Give the backbone structure.
Amino acid sequence: MSKIIFITGGARSGKSRLAEEIALKHGAPLGYIATGQSGDGEMEERIARHRSRRGPDWQTLEEPLQLAEVVRGHDGYFQAMLVDCVTLWLTNLLLAYDDAPRALAHVKELTGMFPHLTTPLIFVSNEVGMGIVPENRLARTFRDLAGEANELLAATADEVYVTISGLPLKLKG
């Protein structure tokens, strides 16, 4: 069974940097599963910044929707796989299906695979439910979906961290 590590926190809190540091301890080759899509110049810049931080030990796999299939298909190939990020994946699912229960079913499928995997998995997700209640239906649906997905991932993870202002706090494991 693989080790599952879940890292959450606010925007620009150091989540990805912590996840990369943990993954590097497993040695090469490392898989980076990117769920974000470059829809504009600002997002392209973010993606480029993340790529430049990683070295030659990383192989990037871009998958906006079929995360479970990519994880399953690369199990045993990498020393560790890092998924960055869960909330972008959920955004993609919600926009593709306009159906939060269907999106959450993808999360349940993914967590159901954990006992059968051999490669350590590290997940990065945003903590989006600590602010005010959003004013529109889509934003409220997304906030609730992200909260439920984070809860499922944290419950099934071996280790859970939250990052605040660049400082990690271990919550589980």
Residues 4-172 form a domain with the Rossmann fold fold (CATH 3.40.50.300). Residues 9 and 126 are 5 Å apart (CA to CA). The two ends are 16 Å apart (CA to CA). The mean pLDDT is 94.
